[in-house]
Design a protein that fits this description.
alpha+beta, globular, 463 residues, 4-stranded antiparallel beta sheet, 37% strand
């Protein structure tokens, strides 16, 4: 809890500011929620996937809160309110993907959005909002979504123009993955049974498999590879199982008490997975067993873009090579704030609140964000420019002989009891956060005054 003195200061500030900034109370509410835990959005800022990339490298990256987009010579934050999600109480990870590397489709809270050429455009497709689309995949230059419908699910093409569904079912399928010209789906039949189907791009059934496991089931994820279709199942408690789906059923490969990611093949065909943040390599071509390869940072994804595999390591992304992690090509350090002019005034105001929260998370993680101003120098390498071999000096020691950094993520924040912040010894950081919110409030008030002045001038000119 906050100390009495901080409450007194906050109360005084509320009385002082309420006539000048109507949303100041909202800012204080955001601040109070942000100091209640180390990270306001359920974890340290993380890079989760490439959304779009071209010949120069990634252009849009998925974060655990919103997106990061290349703008000139820097990466800038795109907040969830820009696609209709103005909730400031929890982090929001959007479904977003590109087919051509230039235009990114975002499944918004109220519509389908297209990010292209520095603009963000709603498409008038509320049927493709996040209330309906539960999974998104790219296959053979087509973007396909798994959409909920009344009494079941269906596969639809994602775009501005509505097309007939590719396939439909009266069952509720929850997982979707694509490889080449095949679409793979999975669902929980009951608490112990799984169903898998494979379709071609026209929606025709290629194969179907059902398996029964000897433990409870709560979620299933798919990873198609050249060695076969793998699935990871979660029991709803603390157990993960990686298995290979075969024509004859299911073959268990690995069990873990922490999240499993992968398998993903490196350029030479070597299969990799991550368990408990540790990078593991398949010990033989059959990919039935995996072995650790040196110490690594916390690897939290193994994916591929355009046939090139990569790994998420905290707030950074690395290419995945045959001997482990290779070049770093993205980092959250130096992320700029939201660029102006992307949405309505209301959406931009909500975006400002979301940036305050995410910026706070960045700073608590030892990362150094920046605000968007034309006078700022470049803060990050341009897309495609990376760090060869090992993480940056602030991200851990040099790479090992296997090419794997012992610590690829920045040092964790100082431990706090029960995952939260105690008031003792924290007034300095709380005061800093409150000062930042005051600055934001004043900036919002100044912006409103300028808008009102401009409108009044325009009205006087017309009369």
């Amino acid at each position: 809890m906050l100390t009495e003195s901080v409450w007194r200061i906050s109360s005084t500030l509320m009385k002082t500011m309420k006539r000048k900034v109507r949303s100041f109370s909202s800012l204080l509410l955001v601040w109070f929620s942000s100091v209640a835990s180390v990270h306001a959005h359920g974890g340290a800022p993380s890079a989760l996937a490439i959304v779009a990339a071209d010949a120069n490298g990634p252009r849009v990256v998925l974060l655990n809160e919103g997106l990061a987009e290349v703008r000139g010579d820097r990466w800038s934050f795109l907040c969830p309110s820009l696609w209709g999600d103005r909730n400031t109480s929890a982090g929001k990870v959007p479904l977003a993907l590109s087919v051509d590397g230039r235009s990114s489709w975002i499944i918004g809270a109220d519509d389908l959005y297209l990010a292209r050429g520095g603009t963000l455009e709603p498409q008038g497709r509320p049927d493709l909002s996040s209330n309906h689309v539960v999974a998104l995949e790219e296959s053979e230059m087509a973007l396909v979504g798994l959409r909920l419908k009344e009494g079941g699910t269906e596969l639809v093409r994602i775009g501005a123009t509505e097309e007939p569904p590719l396939w439909g079912s009266s069952e509720y399928w929850s997982a979707l993955a694509a490889r080449a010209d095949r679409l793979h789906l999975a669902r929980l039949v009951n608490e112990r049974e799984l169903a898998f189907i494979t379709l071609d791009l026209r929606g025709a059934l290629v194969s179907e498999v059902r398996v029964t496991l000897d433990h409870m089931l709560a979620r299933v994820d798919l990873s198609p590879t050249s060695s076969g279709l793998f699935a990871t199942v979660y029991d709803g408690n603390a157990g993960y199982t990686l298995g290979l789906v075969t024509d004859g059923g299911w073959q268990s490969v690995l069990e873990s008490e922490t999240a499993l990611y992968g398998p993903q093949a490196s350029p030479g065909g070597q299969l990799w997975i991550s368990s408990n943040g540790q990078l593991l390599r398949a010990s033989d071509a059959s990919a039935r067993t995996f072995e650790p390869v040196g110490p690594t940072g916390q690897v939290t994804c193994l994916e591929q873009w355009g046939g090139r595999p990569y790994a998420c390591v905290g707030s950074e992304l690395y290419w995945l090579e045959d001997d482990g992690l290779g070049e770093r090509f993205f980092q959250l350090a130096g992320l700029s704030g939201p660029p102006p002019g992307l949405a309505s005034a209301a959406a931009e105001e909500a975006c400002g609140f979301q940036w305050i929260l995410f910026r706070n998370d960045l700073e608590r993680s030892g990362l150094s964000p920046r605000d968007w101003t034309e006078a700022e120098p470049p803060t990050m390498p341009t897309a495609g420019a990376g760090t060869s071999g090992a993480p940056a000096t602030d991200a851990g020691p040099p790479a090992t002989d296997a090419g794997l950094p012992p610590t690829a993520a920045p040092p964790p924040p100082e431990p706090r009891p029960s995952g939260g912040c105690s008031a003792a010894g924290r007034l300095d950081s709380q005061a800093t956060g409150l000062a930042a919110l005051l600055g934001a409030a004043l900036a919002l008030a100044s912006q409103r005054r300028r808008r009102c002045a401009s409108r009044s001038a325009a009205v006087r000119a017309r009369t």
